[in-house]
Amino acid sequence: MKLTILGGGGFRVPLVYGALLGDHADGRVTRVVLHDVDAGRLRAIARVLAERAAGVPDAPEVTATTDLDEALRGADFVFSAIRVGGLEGRADDERIALAEGVLGQETVGAGGIAFGLRTVPVAVDIARRLARLAPDAWVINFTNPAGLVTEAMSRHLGDRVIGICDSPVGLGRRVARVLGARPAEAWVDYVGLNHLGWVRGLRIAGRDELPRLLADPVLLGSFEEGRLFGADWLRSLGAIPNEYLHYYYFNREAVHAYQEAGRTRGAFLRDQQAGFYAGVADPAVPALELWDRTRAEREATYMAENREAAGAGEREAEDLSGGYENVALALMRAIARDERATLILNVRNRGTLAALDGDAVIEVPCLVDAHGAHPVAVDPLPGHATGLVCAVKAVEREVLDAARSGSRTAAVKAFALHPLVDSVNVARRLVDGYTAVHPGLAYLR
Question: Is a pLDDT exceeding 70 seen at residue 320?
């Protein structure tokens, strides 16, 4: 099978390739094509992959190209992990938002809207090309904002594009671990949008164990979300929120922590990865060793400002190994080999949540087989969660409209309607600020 990775010069690509190296079953990936607009980054990641594959029999062949059509043609699966504007763009997104006193995180609030506005047109172009060059391919979308980008691509690829995120998987794993269960044995009742969802139950042997967790302050304080949100608030919700909901429930504290930080997350990653790519350009530097050290630092500092604001301490060792690559490989295997699996994925709603229309992409447990991902019926969300989901989905629709039409008015509306942007005037200034620095937003008029 041919697997194409878009954004193939991206820092996390070796995680995907490493997962592929452990797969020796029939119907496995035999060829990996890396595509990126940056040839230097492609060379750097190709070096890391070559060192990782050394001594591994039958390692998938790796080729790299800057020609998008060449990369897509004949693909069986496409992993989309692009970053339009690079980490410099992310740093700008954060800086401009924080200057207006609002959150600039890359997927949530103003930063997420800016990222979506410049990413959607590129993702749609990819979807159209793919429909022409590899109509039978399946797209597994990593690109953030994952739900929004998946919905944009689904308008051209239908159900053959599926979005993934490791946040719900990590949350379910932590809750199961605290309750003394193996994650593989637990059914996680999770529902929402990407980076906006809640665990409402965790069934082990048919019994919902979440009430036991919510009633035990010691257990609640023993894992990341319990420390991040606090036991009292989790009991009030009757659920465990995705970590990204900290930006909504504790927005003032999060914005203050980001404003007080020496540099934003995007600026940190920009500088860190610049050092990595410059280092790997030296053939005398062991590429895989440098990548491992850089990755460990990256994972340890994830959402550091939020944890500091909440007094949540350091990340647990078990959560430093990522996980999205395992979700992607499990999804690909289930489709390619008809190995049925249950995974939390971003797919079209199709009546799963009554408050949203059928084409809205949501994040829910899905049964996966050779025909794709099928969302599992879920109970309705409580009113407060329904309101937040509907509000954010309305913002996503305005982003899609702005990307389609080039309407500056729609872009302003997207910012102004977001729950974390507190003024229409702020929304207008955000659009002015982002269009002034991002060439990818020149289409807005």
Answer: no
How do residues 173-219 score in pLDDT, each as one tens digit? 999 999 999 988 999 999 999 999 999 999 999 999 999 999 999 99
**CA–CA separation, 351 vs 378, rounded Å?**
10
Residue 154 vs residues 140, 145, 348, 358, 432: alpha-carbon distances, Å: 11, 14, 8, 12, 30
Whether the pLDDT of residue 239 is over 60: the answer is: yes
Q: What is the mean pLDDT of residues 227-236?
A: 96
Q: Could you count the other beta carbons within 10 Å of the beta carbon of residue 213?
A: 20
CA-based max dimension of the chain:
60
Give the residue carrying structure tokens 């590899």. Answer: 134
Helix (H) or strand (E) segment spanning residue 189: strand 186-193
- The mean pLDDT value of the chain amounts to 94
Q: How confident is the model at residue 301 (pLDDT cuts 50, 70, 90)?
A: confident
Burial of 354 (0-12, 13-18, 19+ CB in 10 A): exposed
Residue 294 CB partners (closer than 8 Å, separation 6+): 11, 272, 273, 275, 276
Q: Distance (Å, rounded) from C-alpha 360 to C-alpha 356?
A: 6
DSSP string, 204-260: ETTEE-HHHHHT-HHHHTTSHHHHHH-HHHHHHHTSEE-GGGHHHHTHHHHHHHHHH
Count H helices, E strands: the chain?
20, 13
415: amino acid identity, one letter: F
Q: Exposed, middle or buried by CB within 10 Å (0-12, 13-18, 19+), for 25? A: exposed
110 in Cβ contact with 104 (< 8 Å): yes
Residue type, 405: S
- What residues pair up with 191 in beta bridges, in sequence order? 198
188, containing H or E segment: strand 186-193
Tens of pLDDT, residue by residue over 59-79, are 999 999 999 999 999 999 999
Task: Compute the distance between CA of residue 49 and CA of residue 401 in angstroms, rounded to an integer.
Answer: 39
Helix, coil or strand: residue 74:
coil
Identify the pLDDT of residue 368. Answer: 97
Query: pLDDT class for 223, splitting at 50, 70, 90?
Result: very high
pLDDT tier at 290, thresholds 50, 70, 90:
very high
Q: pTM of this prediction?
A: 0.94
Please tell me whether residue 58 adopts helix, strand or coil conformation. Answer: coil
Nearest Cα neighbor of 124 from 151, 164, 85, 146 is: 151
Chain mean position to CA 23: 24
Quote the Cα angle for 361-362-365, to 5°. Answer: 130
- Of 107, 124, 123, the C-alpha closest to 115 is 107
Task: Provide the 8-state DSSP code for 2.
Answer: E
